[in-house]
Design a protein that fits this description.
Organism: Oceanobacillus zhaokaii
Shape: elongated
Number of domains: 2
Order of helices and strands: HHHHHHHEEHHEEEEHEEE
InterPro entries: AraC_E-bd, GyrI-like, Homeodomain-like_sf, HTH_AraC, HTH_AraC-typ_CS, MarA-like, Reg_factor_effector_dom_sf, Tscrpt_reg_AraC-type_HTH
Helix content: 25-40%
GO molecular function: DNA-binding transcription factor activity; sequence-specific DNA binding
Distance between the termini: 14 Å
Keywords: DNA-binding, Transcription, Transcription regulation
Number of strands: 9
CATH architecture of the largest domain: Alpha-Beta Barrel
Protein name: AraC family transcriptional regulator
Length: about 290
Amino acid sequence: MESLQQLVDSIDYIEKNLDGDLHIEQIATVSCMSKFHYQRMFHMLTGFTVGEYIRNRRLTKSAEELLQSNTKVIDVALKYGYETPESFSKAFRKIHGISPSTARKKSQLLKAFPKLSFQIQIKGDVEMEYKIMEKEAFQVIGKGIQTSTVSGENNRNITAFWNESNSNGFSEALAENCGPLGLIGVCTDFDQQQENMTYFIGAEKQTETYPNEWQELEIPKATWAIFPVKGAMPEAMVKVWERIFSEWFPSTGYEHAEGPELEVYLSDGDPNSDDYYSEVWIPIMTK
């Protein structure tokens, strides 16, 4: 479980530098992970982006300082990375619901986001099946949405996107053009600075003729770790995603390679059935 301990070390590093410069490249170096792998690991394990976590901790510490000292608001703002009192006040109000100056008054209700901690356990009571496969680049056709990754908004938006696609005939039209992989959900274009990503519902391209509103997306050549998912959607899929990052990556010599992640729906069965079969594909590289 070395990588989880390294994640703990990175949290300690963040905590010691909340009042200084924090760069994701340096934080990832502390964790001995690539920048991309660290950000995906962090988000999957905590539900927060790295930027969201740092912002919440800084606004927690700034509230404590406003209550416990006479430091000027502008000085607190600068200390915790805000260039102007206005930008600090806007972020502070979004979290705490009141302005920094109001927070100085006693008996005000404030929010505290505690420092993250991880209880490192060796689970291993239920084995994880997987296989490693290389695949050449291929094309996917379909439609995509851009969604924020803050506070789990991506999960809500992706579920809504699937529901809409299943009800308006889009999924059915895609199924008529499916290659051997069936329907594919693609998680791609992760932008941790802007805290957003793209989710694409598509199928492996089998024809040059498709509706004008559909888009084409290339999935690059990669080595994939492929995990079977057995059970009703979306619960079974979510559980496997969690185990990949909390159990599989920490116990293997692999890390996430920068590139899209795939949810592959091979089965023609009922997605609500307990025996429904699908897969998660993760691009990997050796550490």
